[in-house]
Amino acid sequence: MQKGYGTGASPGEAVGKLHWYKREEKEIPRYKPAAPKAEWERFLSAQQEVIAQLGELADRARKEAGEEAALLFKTHQFMAEDTDLEDAVRTAILETPVNAETAVQEAADEFAEMFAQMEDPYFQARAADVKDVAGRLLAVLGGRKKGQVDLSEPVVLAAEDLSPSETMQLDRGKLLGFVTTGGSASGHTAILARTMEIPAIIGIGDFLKPEMEGHLVLIRGENGEVVVDPDPEMVRAVEEKAEAQRRYKEELESLKGLPSVTQDGRSIKIYCNIASPRDVPAVLRNDAEGIGLFRSEFLYLGRDDLPDEETQFEAYKTVLTDMGEKNVIIRTMDIGADKKVEYLGLPKEENPALGVRALRICLNRPELFRTQLRALYRASAFGHLKIMFPMVTSVWEVLEAKKLCDEVKQELKEAGIPFDGNVQVGVMIETPAAVLISDLLAKEVDFFSCGTNDLTQYTLACDRQNKDLGRFFDPHHPAVLRALKLVCENAHRYGREVGVCGELAADMTMTEEFLNMGMDELSVAPGAVLPLRNKVREIS
Ligand code: PEP
Ligand code: MG
Q: pTM of the predicted model, to two decimals?
């Protein structure tokens, strides 16, 4: 038995025969083409073929691994048609002149080197993407199929490196996991492995060697451990765990399409939290019944200026259209506290969590709020929208926000722009003040959603960002649970629906208590939907 450690790139354990993957590397021929123009045409048709192949891979990735993986192949498509790369190839073929293979290889080497020299690890990792795209172009130019890794039996695959397209084209039924000697955790291969839920370890170095082909190996994606020729007990333990995991996954799959209802008939809606339209495929794949929290502020982050009405409208419309008949609760922007944007020019604060945040910014700067509300109401024509205000402490804030909603609706009406006249408006319950006046708030809004992350922070006077507060930050604290119970009672007293969209919603030790309180909805990350439905259905 030999043990080595790399970097865990994707969690999970696997045990199986080691198969060393050696890429078929062909010598690149270098010659002067007899007719450079025809050679350029040959490149252009290879480029078209590659773009088509990457389109197919993107579709496949979307179905099997979600939007993030599909985006990777879309990025590869952009790289394949990148004008800088194309110009370099054209100059080499028409002016030097050299054959298309040499032109592609040299241009790609230059671009990959440029990325590799960058300081940011994210851009460094893009060098591998350029090489992947170039490899595909070279394969097409050489009349080969790129990235097909044929596996005849279930194996743990070892390779010096795997390109994202090779990873995507691996036969999932036969791939138990993979280990690479090189690679980076922020590289796309690692990202793909995580989305495809394949245990993976990267950077194992020369611990694994091609001579080990056929040996039994055990890998642990969590800690990057690789064991060659493991003890039989170790193998049995991993196999049993993997089998239990497989059965559990199958069981979860079988819950798709079933209601989230307890054995004695109490039902609860299971919704999802999202941060971008790109998360919607995961919501649908996991059969969530709606979106309980779209954190719209993510549209505002990572930019140099405010997203305009059109940008926001498109994002909301995409989510609403993709969700079809299902409810979508979009929270108006919750900037401030830990989510800062330079361009709003907000002053530095002593206590940002208690400062100019969320609805407070919107009410202080109504022009900014109007833009978001216009985008939201315009998008409401495309699905089932509900609007939710964050960080509420007083009734007057809600009345002022609702007045702005009415003004925006009136504007749209006058301009003949379609919108849904029955969009429900709700508030997040995340401050002790909101809890204590939840009866008064219930009279003014259509629904509540409890943000237990902030509710815990503000109820326990405990900064949610401060790692040192560990055991003091306790969402199970009786003060928080009593608050939730009171909110439920007040919501139901006025016939309003109430849910939880903070992290506590996915805590399965709480599910029964939430049902007993009478929560109508729990909103969780897409991956938590089916485990939670399973939990609900077990309760009697
Ligand atoms: C919460 O506070 O629980 C919540 C869902 O909102 P956020 O985590 O985005 O502040
Ligand atoms: Mg919050």
A: 0.70
